[in-house]
DNA sequence: CAAAGCATGTAAATAGTTACATGATTTA
DNA sequence: TAAATCATGTAACTATTTACATGCTTTG
């Protein structure tokens, strides 16, 4: 039973209290978005597949006319998640960073334009940092108080990484500025 | 003329001295791989497309029976690269990090298994750091001496980021270890 | 002469996004 | 009553990888 990564993301989010596809998407946006994302077009078909595989159970929740389907992990789903977490398969890290790529090629433009790229990279990390501080940190703290401590720990990595980028940009800007 | 990101990667690598598809792949592996990658199956068809678009010129280089096609940027290709570098479109950053994702869900396993995940994340960054120091740094220094300074600058970002991850892992391990 | 490295390409599959499409409920 | 939020889904497209397929040249 080899599942795509997105399936483990779904399983994990259900384990953290998400109940619907919509919930999963919302939680991803405030918590894992900076290192792992998923789109609606992946979530809904995957939830159906996971239900067929009996890793989750789904029930239509009738609230007036609004349709919402709530899901929960089965014992097997929980075991599958744990098995994946414990497996020592390679922890692939893929980064697609247009900022770094432009900076890498910045010798092809004049120094003023290169400086603009660095500033844009710094601004981007500052924006991400403020997102991490604003919707992400309170969400992680809420989970922390509910006994789930690792979301807050991973948040710390994101903050540290963007701070490192910002420091590096400032140093480079100082070195290259006219 | 809106090109896929991979096309700019090719254009940029030709600007840095790569001559063939094979060269491009090799250079990517030692330099941008940590923030931007490309596969052979993308390179060869894209080179043909770029030639049709007159952004590069290609010539078969006859060396005995081995076939090699050497490419060079046209003036238009160089201008296209510069235009992209100067454009202020969003500098998207996409990360898919299985290590962080597992860590995020680590409340679902026991503390010993969670610790294993942190150690694996640290080991991975150490491995990447040593790759950055081993084939990447000498390659970046060679470019630096040839007047291309930005590859060495971007290398610094990669090193700083992985060092930040390693420090963070050590701190977390100390906090959680029995 | 075997292994490593040089060199190019395609087909099929998988992964992932964007746009399309709809409609209910709550809040300002 | 309009806007925001809740809620689910599919079709088409784009991007990317993996596996297949081949053959020359240099070095040990």
Summarize the structure.
Chain A is built from seven helices and three strands; from the N terminus they run H-H-H-E-E-H-E-H-H-H.
How would you characterize the overall build of this protein?
The structure is a homodimer of 178-residue chains. Chain A has 178 residues and is mainly alpha-helical. In chain A, 65% of the residues lie in helices and 12% in strands. Chain A has helices spanning 5-15, 21-30, 40-52, 75-86, 98-104, 111-145, 150-176, and strands at 56-63, 66-73, 93-97. A two-stranded antiparallel ribbon of chain A has the order 1-2. The longest helix of chain A is centred in the last third of the chain and has 35 residues, at 111-145. The mean pLDDT of chain A is 95. At the A-B interface, helix 1, helix 4, strand 3, helix 5 and helix 6 of A face helix 1, helix 4, strand 3, helix 5 and helix 6 of B. Chain A binds a DNA duplex (28 and 28 nucleotides) through helix 2, helix 3 and strand 2.
The residue fraction in helices of chain A comes out at 55-70%
Strand content of chain A: 5-15%
Largest sheet descriptor of chain A: 2 strands, antiparallel
Q: Based on helices, strands and strand pairing, what is the structural class of chain A?
A: mainly alpha
Q: How would you spell out the order of helices and strands of chain A?
A: HHHEEHEHHH
Strand order of the biggest β-sheet of chain A? 1-2
Q: Which chains share the greatest interface?
A: A-B, 64 and 64 residues
Q: What is the CA-atom radius of gyration of chain A, in angstroms?
A: 20 Å
> How many helix segments of chain A?
7
């Amino acid at each position: 039973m080899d599942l795509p990564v997105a399936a483990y993301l779904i399983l994990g989010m259900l384990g953290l209290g998400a109940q619907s596809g919509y919930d999963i998407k919302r939680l991803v946006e405030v918590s894992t978005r900076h290192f792992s994302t998923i789109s609606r077009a992946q979530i809904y078909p995957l939830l159906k597949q996971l239900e067929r595989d009996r890793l989750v159970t789904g029930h239509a929740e009738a609230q007036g006319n609004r349709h919402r389907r709530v899901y929960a992990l089965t014992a097997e789903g929980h075991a599958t998640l744990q098995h994946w977490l414990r497996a020592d398969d390679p922890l692939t890290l893929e980064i697609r960073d247009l900022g770094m790529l432009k900076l890498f090629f910045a010798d092809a433009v004049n120094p003023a334009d290169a400086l603009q790229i660095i500033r844009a990279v710094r601004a981007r990390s500052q924006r991400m940092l403020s997102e991490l501080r604003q919707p992400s940190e309170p969400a992680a703290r809420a989970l922390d108080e509910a006994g789930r401590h690792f979301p807050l720990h991973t948040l710390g990595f994101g903050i540290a990484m963007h701070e490192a980028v910002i420091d590096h940009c400032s140093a480079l800007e100082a070195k290259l500025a006219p």
